[in-house]
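Spend some time on this chain, tokens included, and walk me through the fold:

. . .
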Amino acid sequence: MKQSTLVQLTPQRLLWVSVGVAIATIILKTWAWYITGSVGLLSDAMESFVNLASALFGVAMVIIARRPADDDHPYGHHKAEYFSSGFEGALIVVAAVAIIWATIPRLMHPQALEQVGWGLVLSTAGSVLNGLLAWVMFQAAKVHRSVALEADARHLVTDVWTSVGVIVGIGAVVLTGWLWLDPLVAIAVAVNILREGFHLIWRASQGLMDEAVEPEVLSDIAGVLKEFEHHTIRFDHLSTRRAGQRRFVDMHMHMPATWSLGRAAAVRTTVEQALMSAVPGLRASIQLLPSDVEAHFGDEKDLI
């Protein structure tokens, strides 16, 4: 399948691809641990199990996020993707703690490694699969504005760096004969993925608290409004938020009180359509006010 075709797949289908890749890497990396006895490779394999669980949960959340708005959720279900990111972060934290717990005994009592060459080949093959999929998912996350895809891609990148660290560590064990390096690398891997887990949890929490849109999106919005600004028209009290794939913007548009309602509404519609064309997935809501009327919400300054 061509790369461009993969990027254009829906988030749901891409996450199913992630499930398949996770199963393949679990087999490869568990086999690598089994034949070598390396706790470093064991930590790598355990993270692949997290990839599988995260991808499956991501599929469920993306399905929910695609549901249309209803009476109980008038703004839609788009925030469901943040639960996917938070769940993935929590799983990563649990996996990191489990890796450290399993590694400490080996650090106290190091053991020789076996069939290192084959183990490294299998681990490298799994990492290549994860790296390719992560690249595709990052591109697709931008196209679809999907938090779930971005979270999964970030975790896959962490997995790749984890594997690189493990491979380097095992190589150092072979070259130096220092068996304690293997469990030490496993602990370093756990600390690294622990950091990524907390990052994903933080990102999910910010999304659930109605974080403002990205600076580049706000710049696009400001650019559109500037095109419509006139001595008879001005905008203020602009506020934004994001919810999964959706972006929302609310503002006031002031215009002459002598304009008819029909004329004012027509201009508002034009502005809203221009905003939604400039920012895919944006929902604009504009309140009309006469030029000599101000609405105060305890805000000392306007964004636009």
About this structure: Strands lie at 234-243, 246-255, 282-290. Residues 215-290 form a domain with the Alpha-Beta Plaits fold (CATH 3.30.70.1350). The radius of gyration is 25 Å.
